[in-house]
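Here is the promised in-class demo. Please do not try to memorize the tokens; focus on the logic of going from shape to residues.
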């Protein structure tokens, strides 16, 4: 279990309008307990989509959380991990949670791990227990997961657990049947500064090797499933049933974007110069 050094190591927290953030989540403010954290985490993934649209509309994403706040809270947009988890970290800090951001490395299809800072996650310590928080993955867990190895934690229809590799890195693993688990990413109890994610944030916006430059993507969890829109198809998951519809052109994409996510082209952030 890692304790924070508030005077030397804690990442700087930008001032944000907590009331506006809470209104976006549809919640009132409560004491910083694990019960409230579960509410916050669930509300975040139901209210705020994961999306990479700025990358495809040539709009620069900077790790400036006053601008990210304006985009996600005021303009009612979404974002990807550096935006969503970074902004959520700022909210949790303002609400009194003992938390920090750290780096996670995704496990690729070839069994190798991505570079450090490929993904941003949050770790919180509540009542002497450590929890993994991740509202910036797209399709991940709905509630914070207590970080302890050897115990399976259920989250709707997915089972989650933590293991360790030979180097003592923590492995987040998931399964659909609680017997055969796959590793999603690895991380360690080591707090990081926001500035350390800037290089990979830039990579994911500009490199042909980044999955985020390959297609437009926006997805959000619903009460009975999930809605996912790309520039190729609309995928509707409802009560376990999947419906997929092709997206034939840009006009159709923008129409579905407004219909299912209430985002219009005018809500996109200013064009990068």
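The designed amino acids, position by position:
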């Amino acid at each position: 279990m890692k304790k924070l050094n508030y005077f030397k190591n804690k990442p700087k927290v930008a001032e944000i309008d907590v009331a506006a953030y809470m209104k976006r989540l549809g919640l009132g403010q409560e004491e910083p307990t694990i019960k409230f954290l579960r509410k916050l985490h669930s509300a975040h993934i139901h209210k705020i989509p994961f999306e990479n649209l700025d990358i495809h509309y040539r709009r620069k994403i900077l790790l400036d959380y006053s601008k990210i706040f304006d985009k996600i809270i005021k303009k009612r947009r979404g974002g990807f991990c550096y935006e969503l988890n970074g902004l959520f970290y700022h909210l949790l800090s303002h609400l009194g949670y003992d938390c920090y951001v750290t780096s996670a490395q995704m496990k690729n299809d070839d069994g190798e791990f991505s570079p450090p800072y490929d993904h941003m996650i949050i770790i919180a310590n509540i009542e002497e227990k450590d929890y993994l928080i991740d509202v910036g993955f797209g399709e991940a867990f709905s509630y914070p997961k207590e970080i302890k190895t050897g115990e399976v934690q259920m989250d709707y229809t997915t089972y989650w657990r933590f293991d360790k590799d030979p180097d003592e890195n923590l492995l987040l693993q998931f399964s659909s049947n609680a017997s055969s688990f796959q590793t999603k990413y690895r991380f360690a109890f080591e707090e990081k500064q926001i500035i350390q994610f800037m290089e990979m944030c830039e990579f994911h916006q500009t490199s042909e090797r980044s999955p985020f430059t390959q297609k437009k993507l926006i997805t959000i969890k619903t009460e009975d499933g999930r809605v996912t829109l790309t520039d190729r198809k609309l995928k509707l998951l409802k009560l376990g049933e999947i419906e997929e519809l092709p997206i034939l052109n840009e006009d159709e994409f923008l129409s579905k974007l407004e219909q299912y996510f209430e985002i219009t082209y005018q809500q996109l952030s200013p064009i990068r110069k």
